[in-house]
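Internal QA ticket QA-208
Title: Verify multi-chain structure generation after dependency bump
Assignee: T.L.

Test input:
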Amino acid sequence: MSICAVPVEHGMKAFIYNPENSPAHRLNPVTKIISLSVVFTVSMLFNHPLYLGCLIALVACLGTVSRSLPAMWKIKYLLLILFLFPTCLWSIYMDGTPVLLHWGPLQISSRGLNYGIAMGFRLTGMLMAGLILLATTRVEDFTAGLNRLGIPYRMSFSLTLAFRLVPLFYDTFQTVVQAQQSRGFILNTGNILQKIRRTLPVLIPVFVSGIRRTDQLAVALESKGFGYRRERTRLHPIRFSRSDRLLLSAAVLFLCVCIILRLTGQGKL
Amino acid sequence: MRDVILMWKETRMVVLTAVTAAIYAATVMPLKVATIIPGFTEIRPGVAFVVFCSFLFGPAAAWGAAFGNLIADFFGTLGLGSIFGFAGNFLFGLIPYKAYRILAGEIRFSGSTRSWFGAISAILLASMTCGFTIGWGVDLLGFVPFHILGSVITINNAILAGIIVPVLLKILYERTRKWGLLYQEILQPEDTAPGLMPMPGLVLTAVGATGGLSLGFLTGFGFLTISVATPVLLLPFIACTVLGTILL
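Actual output:
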């Protein structure tokens, strides 16, 4: 099973999209974007570690159904760091009682620790939900979904084009670095200021190479009728299926239950 | 702010937005000098591209910076924080060319002493606004306290852009002008006209960003005790910054 979104012929394989045929892959991108927004909203409603822990468990179940766990596994260390960082930071920064640990000017309270864990869960849960979207949705479908949600066509097209150009410019970047290395250039040496200065001989050719394509790209687009008509037809029209309606109903119901829980004082530290 | 909307009718501006976003995303990730806050912010010289492109491509660079940040989030860190990353980077690309016009008193970069003063001041203001917006948003979401992320992003952006952008301007500005890719040459003059009240807008943006950062740092680092949550305390400054940017 491979994990890639950008064409393999370009050397960059860092996007998260996982070409599978799970139920989540077959959903309308609009449904997935709205469901993601529901997860984000719910995670903002609560600040209790138990409730946010349950939300993470739910997201992990969705990850299993959508076969996105390999994508999550791919960035496991990043997820771990992103959980630990807010946990440690808020534990130290937030005052409260009872004090669990006292070390010089630093103290960790039970309230601070609970809040820190909750914030760690909130951030990790959001990222995991985002990963499911990324692992199950092609860039073109994502931007088509944004377009359907009211983002103007030219804007969503520009975003799609940017996604397509990233591997191209990344390859240019690699070529420039290798060419300069063959002349004895070492990118990552010296102190921070020297390292910053050393990036200039790389940044300039990448920039020049990039903007020289601008006119060619603009002419190519206009010769294919870009911006000729306001009404547009689609090569791959996106439709709402029964599964989309079911998932959206479940998401709205879940959101309502969470709002009621929150209004009755649940899920708060 | 008319130019931010009207630029979309020009195909070359659409392409320049995509090119800026792609170069930003393609260089910001591999060119990492050091990590400051794991997963949140690193010293990445690629951020200087945003400010440099702002002087050249104007509104296309603002959208390009926002899209580039979103694309970088597509490598695994897409979350609610991406909205504030989008907004912060948009302002980071928008403010330099808008502020430069007022501070330097010219549209094109000429290389005079006043134009250098305008460029450096615009870089500082853009860095502060970006750090303030993202720091406020991330604190609002509860991920990282404002004073930690706000200070790191502001200093990081200001130093990197302050070192790299002047060199890029000196080497590449004239070349890009000769290729006819400056936003003033692509857009119609009426589309690039300044906003409703540029000078009051600049003052409001500066007051919002500097005031918000200062108050956030004073309370965050314990020099001032106010029993109000930081995001609520800084809300008037955010409103001030947004209003100022609209008027620019």
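Spot checks passed. The first helix of chain A runs from residue 23 to 26.
Status: verified.
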